[in-house]
Task: structure prediction
Amino acid sequence: MIMFDKAFDIDLVRLRDIFVYDSQAPMIFSSGLFLWLFAAFIVVYLLLQQRATARLMFVTLFSYYFYYKSSGTYFFLLALVTVSDFLLAHFMERTVVHWKRKMWVVLSLMINLGLLCYFKYANFFCDIFASLVGGTFTAMDIFLPVGISFFTFQSLSYTIDVYRKEIKPLTNLLDYAFYVSFFPQLVAGPIVRAKDFIPQIRRPLFVSDEMFGRGIFLIVSGLFKKAVISDYISVNFVERIFDNPTLYSGVENLMGVYGYALQIYCDFSGYSDMAIGIALLLGFHFNINFDSPYKSASVTEFWRRWHISLSSWLRDYLYISLGGNRKGKIRQYANLVITMFLGGLWHGASWNFVLWGMLHGIALAVHKFWMTLSGRKKGEKSHGIRRFFGVLITFHFVCFCWIFFRNAEFSTSMDMLNQIFTTFRPQLFPQLIEGYWEVFALMALGYLLHFVPDSRERACTKTVIRLPLLGKAVLMVVMIYLVIQMKSSEIQPFIYFQF
Result:
């Protein structure tokens, strides 16, 4: 007979290491550890269903732990932003004099953008300054906290809305900490507006059958997009092409660009889908963040469908603040370019992101000019063959821009374009398909799902919603098992079974 203490041995050291921050394996939704932690979290969350304050405190603490597992001790930045903006919003509310209110919102901007500039752009700007004065610069060892761009923008939207008198400031610090740190959207968005989220905080916890079913559908589809399609085609094809474009023919480089376009969409939208789905399971509604962007027939439409929470934030708090379209056409075009220039820089401290943003800004200005020249009304959609060619041209322009977004060096992007236009070699395509058939099968499936009519997507969602609870559970378990199998190398087992 095998005694209990001999049946298995728990390695407490390894168990401790799993729950401590690891810079080599930050926690994300598709990691195996999060899936297990979330299962335990749900149990406690449901037990606190009738105790609102305790539930908010529990979720806030879990969110801070989630951020600790993503960025280590830098969770204090999250607390700093939370406390400072909570207090500044109250100062604004109690201040009548306009210039004093402006002083408080400027201070909020300085704190949030100051943190963002130091951690994300200090080395970039110092290097530029050194090159301008003819000196040399050695990069400082500055850790970039995960998600700092998201939670600073989210907190800024709150203080700016209070300054504009669009919302009233919260009176409870716990409520505001809950809003800023809410873990589903903390490290990768979507950027949730205070006016949309704050009214939901103190509502009685309620998850309808539709919310539950839609949440399961979004989590499963997000996991599939992020952990299956995006990760697989990235590791097994896209990275190889972009790392050494001159080693491959033009047709291989072009397929690599198409692969990256799908990879980055599935990565970003998959994570957003999981965030929205998890929030639904917890009783909270987020707005949609990606709306089949490659179906767009213009660059303007693309930015109404791509990363909607970011593009709308840039529109409402940057583009409109610059003057928007209120000060003439030339100023409007300049504002578009400036907004996208800063939007590109928001993605990362590198010239490739700046160039990517500038290309989109110029394209938006050109499209606005064309709309004015042709007399077409704002929001008017094209149809039929006109829309087909609009989608085709827009998709390839976006893919062209992704080349510069993905490559850190301009020379590498030019090498890739040179291969595509000078050494295309289409006769290699059958051999390419044969050698990477799994990758191309996933790419075909990914694009097929992306371009499926909206009516079919809604029908699929309704089918999942109508499934019985057991069916939803089986669907979730199957997807989680698939992801864990693919991610098994991330978490080494801490229990050793001995027989």
